[in-house]
User: Fold these one by one.
Assistant:
Number 1:
Amino acid sequence: MSWYPVWRRNFLVWKKLAGPSLLGNLADPMLYMLGLGYGLGGLLPAVDGVPYLNFLAAGTLAYSVMNSATFETLYSAFSRMHVQKTWDAILNTPLGLKDILLGELFWATSKSLLSGIAILLVVWVLGLYADLGMTLALLPVALLTGFCFAGLGLAINAVSPNYDFFLYYFTLAITPMILLGGVFYPPTALPAWLAGIAAWLPLTHAIELARPLILGNWPKACCRMRWRWWPMGRWDLPPP
Amino acid sequence: MSPVKPPLSLRGLSKSYGGQLVVDGFDLELEPGRCHGLLGPNGAGKTTTLRLALGLIGADAGTVELLGYPMPDQARLARRKVGVVPQVDSLDPDFTVGENLQTYGRYFGLSGKVIAERIPSLLDFAGLAGKADAPILTLSGGMKRRLTLARALVNDPDLIFLDEPTTGLDPQARHLIWQGLRRLIAQGKTLLLTTHFMDEAERLCDVISVMDKGRIIVRGSPRELIAGHIEPHVVEIYGDGLGEWSACASSFCRRCEQAGETLFCYTDDPEKLVAELEASQGLRYLHRPANLEDVFLKLTGRDLRD
């Protein structure tokens, strides 16, 4: 638990700026969901047997969690490391790099879980679910998704020389996941070769878990995970 | 063998980066309760030495013992009783003064209650009494440095590393920091200070080590270094006609060297030289006692190190 003071530091800063932070994290995905769900959904027949807005809810939840974890571990953590020298200050105390990374990892996971909960509240309020009890299982799904993307984000952070480098990750990983991962339509709508690519994207797997829970089925896809959460698999770190 | 373990002991320490030897067979042993200065031009290896001492990096060869613990293996234990004032500001800009101390104290595993009890005396020490609720953005450069010093004391350390603690401060702020450091020495803390200000080192340090190219070149008290390495008087000469005059300068002093438009004459007996300069037209001069900066420049040269 020696990572806890690092987590706590980030939490206390977040608490001070919670208003704008929550708005930034939540307004964007919510507007996408409602705008596209009602606007575009009005033109569409039922998708997977439900109104388009209901279909969109699971994808929005997963991508909101992904975005939240990604921004936190890229821009925010990078600022703490390079600009504010927060990590340098911590390394002069008994804590080591492993504590800092675990603190950052769990913090980004916590923050992204909060994004997931906010979308879940909208799902509940608008009644976009088939089975209320089953939607509770979305909480561990959001937690796992946030954890996965926080780990990926920290790995990218570690190899980035500057903020501009993040664009590679956004353009080559995040954007393809949002557009191909099944947020806006079922992956079966894609031609086989694109669906093949989509099947490798972590966001696809998160949505494969989340969508059935909203539509009222237990997910069957868990065993199809193609990636072991590889960024977390190793600790090639210097001693603390 | 001294009965008390030295707060920091570096033996045969070497570290290279990209094939270049940055620290080269470095030995240093600190005496408890004294202020030690580590001086050297840019690139001499001071910061790398500090990072090795703190266990932030491992050495290629040699051993580091910090407060009796082998580094970097037991860095976590050793750093519980070590304070660090880093060169670059690393205060949390989103927190107030008090919150900065609270958060930092938690990294040492201290409870909120213990830290809260220490905060008033820490702020008092740093001349920041009543500022606990002030945001960092409202502090001046000097106040931030003092807060960084207070932050380094939150764990009541036995040994304090100070990496250029007064760089960028005005004279008033520097004097305040010096007062604080003197009080720490009086409390029996051991200090290791790096600085580019020779007057700072001369004022504060009991023992000074001058390093260059990764090695210690000389070690001693400021007085010993000045007495042992340089003539007691310095006359700086500049102005019109210096060119012609410098040819005969060596007959008036033991050693002289020209740097730009100024001639530095080092001598045991300045009277003849000063009389000669008084009589000459156009030349201006400054006669002063030799100081640590003269020693430093003599030992490390006048060339720029970037």
Note: The CA atoms of residues 192 and 198 of chain A lie 10 Å apart.
Number 2:
Amino acid sequence: MNPFHYSRPTGVQEAVHLSSAASRFIAGGTNLLDLMKENISRPDHLIDITGLPLHDIQQTAAGGLLIGALVSNADLAWHPLIEQRYPLLSQAILAGASPQLRNMASTGGNLLQRTRCYYFYDATVPCNKREPGSGCPARTGLNRIHAILGASEQCVATHPSDMCVALAALEARVHVEGRAGARVIEFADFHRLPGDAPQRDNQLADDELITAIELPADNLANHSNYLKIRDRASYAFALVSVAAALELDGDRIVDARLALGGVAHKPWRDRAVEAALIGQLVSRETFSHAADALLQDAEPLEHNGYKIKLARRGIIRALSDAAVAGERP
Amino acid sequence: MTTIGKPLDRVDGLLKVTGKARYAGEFPEDGLLHGSVVSSTVAKGRVLRIDASRALALPGVVAVIDHLNRPRIASYDDAFQDADAADGSPFRPLYNDRVLYSGQPLALVIADNLELARHAGSLVEIEYETEAFETDLLAMQQQAHASPQTPPKPRGDFQAVWIDAAVSLDVHYSTPIEHHNPMEPHASTVLYQPDGTLHIHDKTQGPQNCQAYVQKVFGLEKSQVRIFAAFVGGAFGSGLRPQYQLPLAVMASLALKRSVRVTLTRQQMFTFGYRPRTLQRLQLGAAANGRLLALGHTAIGQTSRFEDFSEHVVEWSGMLYHCDNVQLTYKLVPLDVFTPLDMRAPGAALGVIGLECAMDELACALGMDPVQLRLINYAERNQNEDKPWSSKALRECYREGAERFGWGQRNPEPRSMRDGRQLIGWGMAGGVWEAMQMKASAKAHIDAQGKLTVSSATTDIGTGTYTVMTQIAAQASGVAVEDVAFLLGDSSLPTAPLQGGSFTVSSVGTAVQQACEALNAKLLNIARQTYPVFKDAEAVRFEDGLLHTGDVSVSLAQLVKDSGEDALQVQVDSEPDKKREGYSTATHSAVFVEVQVDEDLGTIKVRRVVSAIAAGRVVNPKMARSQIVGGVVWGIGMALHEETQIDHQLGRYMNHSLAEYHIPVNADIGDIDVVFVEEHDEIVNALGSKGVGEIGIVGVAAAVANAIYHATGKRVREFPITLDKVL
């Protein structure tokens, strides 16, 4: 870990004005500190944002929720309004990390977790995400945990978050503030595919700070399910995860959401696949078609071909379980 | 008064839970310097240049030590050979410019604080000349050579009998590299004394082994080096050999004449010994009635280019079952990696996987119950040594284990049991480990208050040594447990063997018992001289801190006073029991496992385990149970999770952290039922106790694999069994 300056602003604009290309905002630090200890992230300035007034969950006029960026993962997962209206989000958060980490980790920070690719995490080996142009040993190396969708020649890393998979399915919006002012980013646009700039995980500018996550109102709470498939029962990143949510009229699908984690550089979602589910009757066959459609462009590497089969089965399982999830009180 | 056999709480428990137990990297001292190791990033080659200028420019950085500026160290192999050294030339840290493996220590940065040392370490630039390397056992298996330690000679005519057997099986298994990963990372705190001697707190399983190593490597006198290891936060074999942080810390301390601490990072815990990857071939031939006629077990293990690490991988296959035609083969492949190292049940944890999975496959091929197959082939003698067992209650393990598990309800058909979407499988395996005894010494000392202090230079790596030695001493001396203290973890104490191989109770325990008995003889002598009633008394007994005869008693404290001395003490050197000659001695186990496997997703969970253990007399059932539970959990990890993954293009371990190197978490572990079956043994040692450190892990991974086959109908022979392999 390199030496750094430390400041603790009390206002969002103050924080944003302190920032530079070499600074980092820090909240829970559950990922950033690890990255710093491994010399993967070497900020010259840590801007501690925990004193900013971003700790609340508010109801929006449109019937949704606005979640302050500093709400802890634990508080978010166990919040009555989240449990009641967005159980998918609760489930996804609780599928990740450990209670200790969830107590520290912030909502905004969760979006900015960096990949768990072994090569990214070892500063002594090449990695295009860490050092652009140095190469990608994962492509021909240990790639059992890597991407099957949306990867590039430069990078086959996956995004590690569970929470983000649920947020993608719920069509969250990311509120950010920079020197130039505030803007709102649709969740689907927030994270990037690696392309030829894998060093950039998302669309945030250096001076921009996530201030809140907005969840729109929906009718998906009765039929949602987050399925996480991993190498051990807890404290492991998803090999494949599935966020599935349905709005049903009897057996007929009125609305559908389907997002995958562990398979791409960002939560993987295809609106056309969801649109094709609308109007269909709940059945294994319907879900099976959706799985095939969502995975039709999947490309395996040497060791991760199983993820295609696993994702297909996971999608069918998650949608089937969502369909029978039942009314909530 | 029997304290042996009681589930006494850990005598050091309070110190541990209150943080008062200090570990090697926790001893404070004013002005203590901190070292940070700079490791090789390439697998093979030469160091051309080490540029430490940026590190040294930082205020508070005291020195950067490398092979060019280090203090003088020995050069010959014998100086670096320790009590657990493999055959060959031991690794010599910072010796020259050669890079032998990725992760090799190449420099030590010393600074006023740890964070600064680590940061400075990241600024040290090393230029290499790289060479071609090879780290893949599978790719290099044709290069295998015979191990220097050879397995027992073939018996009978394996090849001919195997080919003609009614049922013959030829199956291959592989096991991955695994690292010990104790919670406490390796650390050495060298406290430089005013007279220039070194007091070193080290993470080790053998303080005297480390003392001898430091002496020889640095050309010091025995009196100049004292090693302490009062508490060790798990070791599992990783502390059997002196690890490189020790000589590095000593180098810095000698060079600077200051106290220095070096603690390895979690990543650096992957840069020394480990359980080697193996490729195994099992060839079993049986008659239709299940009688094992021929057994061949070949294992190929990896080692380094500089040492031939060998362990007993295939021996077990020659002793666990009766078989007259046996061929055991063990070979090594040198690679550009560090030398492997003993790790919990070294060899057995690997070889018994192959054997016990193959036995399950044989049972299936014969259409026979796996327990029945094992009973048919029960070994009444150890045919490897052609000796009878000192005791062997494996039959009782099978019976009691099966009964507690409910094995009788098993439908042998794979995929025949389910719970909703979960396929349920029941599997079992047997286990075996040697019950060794080594030379050991102990001192017993009693003061005029009747307080007994017993000591020996062993360690307590979390196994409960403090506690069980206290119990053995209390029992042998007749002093109450509260009045007994046991000292360990100090190289100046009476000689003890390395703490490993499950022989600490057997070896040190025997020495403790004998020391207490010798002390009692001394006390009795004083009583006979002092008190007429004891003069010719035949029936005497030591109990509750008193010496009794008939209705008369005298306190041991009084006897010390009567002696005219402040205290009395004796030291004994104990030898392995003569009765052992002519017998084979071993612990045994039978493990029964229930797994669930998701029929669509392949996720595997071990729902319950019954582990039935035959280990002679159990000194402390609570500590012993903990040992077995720990072994079972690790066995589940071996079956399902653990694997250190090498990128063979980089020659480097890539999942070197506890986030990516998976061990089981609580959520992976179901119910574990441990049962110690009755086993009476008057031959193994005077305590009749065999040691339980290793046996708990042996056979577990095979039982899990067999249960997965029973659940799914799929035989996975490549460990660990991750979900992608059963999809």
Note: The two ends of chain A are 49 Å apart (CA to CA).
